[in-house]
Amino acid sequence: MRISQFDIQPKSGPEAGREPAGVASAEASPIRKFLLSRGHSAFTDRGFHLLMVLCGLSIFGIVALIAFELVLRSDMTLHKFGLDFFFKAFSDPDTKQTVYWDPFNGLFSAVPFVYGTLVSSFLALLMAVPLAVGVAVFLTEMCPRALRGPLAFLTELLAAIPSVIYGLWAVFVLVPLMREHVNPLLVGALGWTGFFNDDNPTGLGFLASGVILAIMILPIISSLTREVMSAVPHSQREAVLALGATRWEMIRMGVLRNARIGIVGAIILGLGRALGETMAVTMVIGNSPQIHRSLLSTGSSMASVIANEYAEATSDMHLSALTEIGLALFVVTIIVNGLAQLLVWAVTRGAPSQAH
Amino acid sequence: MKSRETSFRSRVRAATDHLATTLAILATVVVVAPLLVIFIYLLVKGARSLNLAFFTQIPKPPGEVGGGMANAILGSAILLALSSLIGVPIGIGGGIFLAEFGRGTKLANGVRFTADVLNGVPSIVMGVAVYALIVKPHVSWLPFTGHFSAFAGGVALGFMMIPTVCRTTEEMLLMVPNAVREAALGLGVPNWRSVLSITVRTASPGIITGCMLAFARVAGETAPLIFTAFGNAFWSSNLNQPMAALPLQIYNYALSPYDDWRRLAWAGALVLIVLIVLAVSLVRYVTSRGVLKGAS
């Protein structure tokens, strides 16, 4: 019975392939089942493959879509102001004052926002980098095993806290603290440099946003640095120790020197995060489109002006200007992140990740 | 004379070593302490502000005491469901492509690199792009387009999930031993079937945790929602209407002049944090147990 069926089956041609599996399976031999499934899967396999490739390509699609929409929507300002948008200010004909951003009179210049973004990110890096590298050194080289897990978990957790919650904390804890204690101290001690003026009584401003940004990018920089440092082979450490080095010399010569490219990558990745960070900065930077030398005065960043004004933009030109700022942010973060990714890859490639 | 010099140098070296150790410990304390403070502050302040009304009522008009964020919780749930519907299948598909079909090819390397870069693109930029695509399109191409809507918010969040889900899926699939794939193919199982029922299934605990991580990240996103889902002070479950979301509500209330609204913002922050901590801890627990333990 079985054998005869097997003999007959191939002859019945394509019809057999379409037979519902449930009907045939009662008597079908394993070989026939195998052949049937082969016939089916020639098509399904190719289809599945194609579908998965499409899913992979969707990532290119999203990037292309973002770029396309942003360029399309910012063409008004792109045409009207060109590159001056990022470099030039306007001068008010009556008062002779510099004007950067005046949606009602159609004057748009991104200069103060670029400035605000750069200053707050730079302040954040200045505070975060030494601390992050210190933490990474401690966690990979010095920390007792029992502490390593919880500390790593804590940093992981902090990286997962949403930006709006950092902002909430900053508004109600950090800003009052700056206003009452830190700012007067800085004005008293360093007021002569011109970077710390007490003309802003709110506590909001570049320094406050720099501090909250530093807290936010610390976990990212330190966990990546940790990953890069764990990728340094143990033989390097042992070789330096065998030459009679102290632990710090071992870390400096054996670990940090080997991992430096990756650490730079981690820092640049942190910079990328800081440049694009929106909510926390919007909540504490003060949102005024001005340029002040004092770090204690209010300002505005590229991301914060979009968050603040986009939903209630007054004109098409206004919307276009905000979109162009978004486009600039997009291009800059793509470049920064791409560079950082390449640097981190250069170090960790080939070495299994041990940081997790 | 010479030996004294050497001992001096070695003492300097030992001192430097101690100094470096102290500095590293100090850095850790300086970092961990404020972070713990933030966390404890949130817990205390949030717990004090939380009550039953928070989960059952919608916001009261400005200035009135009481009310809650029930509509925002519902809104966040709907937005997250929508975004997972978009982000999870496409992300997993992309991960399967990277791990199963494109291993080592130029195309796969390009996709992987782009995914990592896309992960770093600020969420506000995604919001602007989706605004241009759906909220204010040049041509109204779908019934959901042309105005602020939950649909637009879901799409923005969904797009943001794709790269994260894609990369974690790939990582998890790469952990599945090749012998498992070969065994399946050797039994004559078609490739698509082997991928879906054998490889993906083996890695499923890891893939699920990856999805939860992306979920937790997206759950707290505010920036892309400001001008897509927009927010809503009332109950709304209509995908075609503006919809409230928890992070959005926290943002609006934190900057409001009313004490009671600020209280609600803290309570909302606590709820969000608990949600995210649960997700992250679960991920940590599952991965520390060994992703593929159940399957081997």
Quick structural summary:
The complex is a heterodimer of chains A (356) and B (296). Chain A is mainly alpha-helical and 356 residues long.
Would you mind describing this structure in some detail?
The complex is a heterodimer of chains A (356) and B (296). Chain A has 356 residues and is an all-alpha fold. The model of chain A is unreliable at 1-26 and 352-356 (pLDDT under 50). Chain A has helices at residues 2-8, 14-18, 21-24, 30-73, 75-81, 111-142, 145-160, 163-190, 206-230, 234-242, 247-276, 279-284, 302-309, 316-348; strands spanning 90-91, 98-99, 101-102, 107-108. With 296 residues, chain B is mostly helical. Chain B contains twelve helices and no strands. Classes of the chains: A mainly alpha (356), B mainly alpha (296). The interface between A and B is large, with 94 and 98 residues.
Order of helices and strands of chain B: HHHHHHHHHHHH
**Largest interface, with Cβ-Cβ < 8 Å?**
A-B, 94 and 98 residues
* Low-pLDDT ranges of chain B: none
Overall number of structural domains of chain A = 2
Largest sheet of chain A: 2 strands, antiparallel
Radius of gyration of chain A: 29 Å
Query: Which fold name fills CATH's third level, the topology of the largest domain in chain B?
Result: MetI-like fold
